[in-house]
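Researcher: Let's continue the batch. This sequence belongs to YfhE family protein, and it's 44 residues. Same format as the previous ones, please.
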Amino acid sequence: MGGKKKKDLGKGKYSLTSTQEVLYQRDFKMADRAGGFTDRNTKL
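Model: Same format as before. Here are the structure tokens for YfhE family protein:
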């Protein structure tokens, strides 16, 4: 079976597409900023 294996990240029941990951990261960063948390390494 020489086919490519699907990536199994083992992060839980639900997996996100790369687009969804980017959107969620952006939303969480905005929510953190709204809550007063700032990370100087984080760019929006």
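Researcher: Any comment?
Model: Residues 7 and 28 are 24 Å apart (CA to CA).
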